[in-house]
Design goal:
- Keywords: Membrane, Transmembrane, Transmembrane helix.
- This protein has two helices and seven strands; from the N terminus they run ααβββββββ.
- It is α+β, with helices and mostly antiparallel strands.
- Strand 3 and strand 4 form a beta hairpin.
- The longest helix is centred in the first third of the chain and has 31 residues.
- The radius of gyration is 23 Å and the shape is elongated.
- It starts with a helix and ends in an 8-residue tail after the last strand.
Length: 177
Amino acid sequence: MLELIWGILNFALLIYFIIICFKAVKVIRENLGGIATLVLVLGLLSFKVNSKDENDRIKTFDLQNVSPKMESEKFEGNEHLNEKKLEQNLLTDFHMSIKYSENNNEIKLLTAYVNRTGIEMGTEWKPSTVFLNKVHNNLYEYHVSGSIDWRILGIRLYTQSKEFDGKIELKKNINNQ
């Protein structure tokens, strides 16, 4: 619910900011001319340009060093992808995906990533660590940590730590919910 209120507040402030900008552009155009207006508009647009590529938001964790060493360095097995829903909120869900290889009931962990889906107005999820420990057979304990940045008009006001702990069973082509 807090995320919904935060998103509405962000949207309202954005609309108000746009209205103020249009009024400021009109005043500047009347008093200083067209070139000053153009410089203001280009300056305002430069603040919104995000230097981070959208692909930088997805952080993949390499888990190959976590798996026990296999007898042969070359591990040929079928690759699988399991997904686990970590948390479900009013507007967003957190999911963890684990890619692993299986050969003769031996599992080699490959990669993992944690993403957030839904409406993310005014907040940004930044995963920092994913740990997996084998309990037995195909059952693993996981620990995921990260942070959520709470922003107003792109300015970070607060950073909230977020952690998930639980167990996941790695099975072929089955989504764990």
